[in-house]
Design brief:
This protein is of the alpha/beta class and about 260 residues long. Helices cover about 40% and strands about 15% of the residues. Strands 1, 2, 3, 4, 5, 6, 7, 8 and 9 form a 9-stranded parallel sheet that branches. Helix 3 links the parallel strand 2 and strand 3. Bound molecules: phosphoenolpyruvate and manganese (II) ion (MN). Phosphoenolpyruvate binds next to loops.
């Protein structure tokens, strides 16, 4: 097990750190997460969905409270940073003791009551772009979290909906470059939802670093073929570790430190 305790507030203040966040789309079992943590090299933060926002209401919705308890137990064993999506303000009471950052998913970018609630908590928020939001709408939505502001909001570009049908979404790399050139938010890239195709994740990770992004949020599963959600886009732990090694080499050129 190589994961370590990244100092999140230091990352937020630092301009040269590149944060690797990875983990399965959905938290499915304790064993799944343990296997992931044991196998993934030097992970800055674990991601795993506890409350899933599924397009189809009959799809797996996440373990909910049971998932939170699994994270609590694993953290007690060996601490790590954890981010998960919050989909309803009523989940906050349950989640707050186990999350180090909250994720707002694409479908909730416009959920201003949720954003106001998160604003009052003062914890970092990974704020995903709605799949049909313009960059200005995304930035305006940040205005609902004024106490977090550029210091504590991490924007996550996860691809937008275009006329293109060959990939799940279209990664708007322009938005990353634009935001880095014109604002002081941290900006990370989610290559998994942006493409929906596992073989595209690795090159998109390289592209993200070249674009000036401050990190990545990658879906990776011990057994992607058995994943209960998003199995087409999840990469193996081994693939994740290879990507990390490659990014380490690239980071010398881009003057970044992988955390
Ligand atoms: C996710 O990160 O698991 C997710 C549901 O992504 P998005 O909100 O970008 O669709
Ligand atoms: Mn997913």
């Amino acid at each position: 097990m190589m994961h370590r305790m990244l100092q999140l507030d230091q990352y937020l203040k630092n301009n040269s750190q590149f944060l690797l966040i990875a983990g399965p789309c959905a938290l499915e079992s304790k064993e799944q997460i343990k296997t992931f943590l044991d196998g993934a090299d030097e992970l800055g933060m674990l991601r795993a969905g506890v409350f899933k926002m599924r397009t189809n209401p009959d799809s797996f919705q996440g373990l909910g409270k049971e998932g939170i308890e699994i994270i609590r137990e694993l953290k007690a064993d060996k601490p790590f940073n954890f981010v998960t999506e919050v989909t309803d303000p009523r989940q906050i009471e349950m989640l707050d003791s186990v999350v180090d950052a909250y994720q707002v998913g694409s479908r909730n970018m416009y959920n201003y009551d949720l954003l106001r609630e998160l604003n009052s908590l003062k914890k970092p928020v990974i704020f995903k772009r709605a799949f049909s939001a313009t960059v200005n709408e995304w930035l305006n939505a940040c205005g609902y979290m004024p106490d977090l502001g550029e210091e504590k909001i991490i924007l996550c570009e996860r691809g937008i909906r275009t006329f293109e049908q060959t990939t799940r979404n279209t990664l708007d790399i322009n938005s990353v470059i634009y935001l880095k050139q014109n604002h002081n938010f941290k900006v990370i890239v989610d290559p998994s939802h942006a493409s929906g195709i596992k073989s595209m994740v690795r090159p998109l990770c390289h592209v993200a670093m070249a674009s000036g992004a401050d990190g990545l949020l990658i879906e990776s599963h011990p057994h992607p073929e058995c994943a209960k959600s998003d199995k087409e886009q999840q990469i193996t732990i081994n693939e994740l570790n290879i990507i990390r090694e490659e990014l380490k080499k690239l980071s010398a050129f881009y003057d970044k430190e992988i955390v």
